[in-house]
């Protein structure tokens, strides 16, 4: 009878039980947090590549629809040009310019020559209106190459 009464009054967890639970949670967190960080990084890379492909397709479609006549705010001279708010709107991609998720120092840029050859780059703002330079720029679409290609390679 005395044992039954003692069990009714024992309403909490022992210190040892709490320490074991905390240790298990710490082990699980140690395993899951690095995987979660890796997943976030991978999703940023995938997002940038997908955005570059969208820009590539939009510029190619715009060139074909306009029969080589660039709309206001765009140029088909073969140099890199920043995808600004006006360009994004002309390409019917929304009213805001896309932003790079992997490295905020880079901007999306496009080039299209008079024959309709399109490419999309990630480059510093200082590289706008210049020809592609593999030592300063990263070409994302149609293929990934250039100085920081490792950032966007899966």
Automatic annotation (TrEMBL):
Keywords: Membrane, Transmembrane, Transmembrane helix. InterPro entries: N_methyl_site, Pilin-like. PROSITE patterns: PROKAR_NTER_METHYL. The keyword Transmembrane applies. The chain crosses the membrane at residues 12-33. This is Type II secretion system GspH family protein. It comes from Roseburia amylophila. The lineage of its organism: Bacteria, Bacillati, Bacillota, Clostridia, Lachnospirales.
């Amino acid at each position: 009878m005395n044992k039954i009464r003692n069990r009714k009054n024992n309403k909490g967890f022992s210190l040892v039980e709490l320490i074991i639970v905390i240790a298990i949670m710490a082990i699980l967190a140690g395993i899951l947090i690095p995987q979660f960080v890796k997943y976030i990084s991978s999703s940023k890379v995938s997002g940038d590549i997908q955005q570059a492909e969208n820009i590539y397709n939009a510029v190619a479609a715009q060139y074909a629809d306009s029969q080589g006549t660039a709309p206001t705010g765009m140029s088909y001279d073969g140099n890199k040009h920043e995808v600004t708010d006006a360009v994004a709107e002309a390409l019917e991609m929304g009213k805001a310019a896309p932003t790079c998720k992997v490295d905020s120092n880079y901007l999306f840029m496009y080039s299209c020559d008079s024959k309709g050859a399109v490419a999309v780059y990630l480059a510093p703002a200082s590289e706008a209106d210049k020809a592609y330079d593999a030592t300063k720029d990263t070409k994302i679409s149609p293929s990934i190459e250039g100085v920081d290609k490792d950032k966007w390679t899966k």
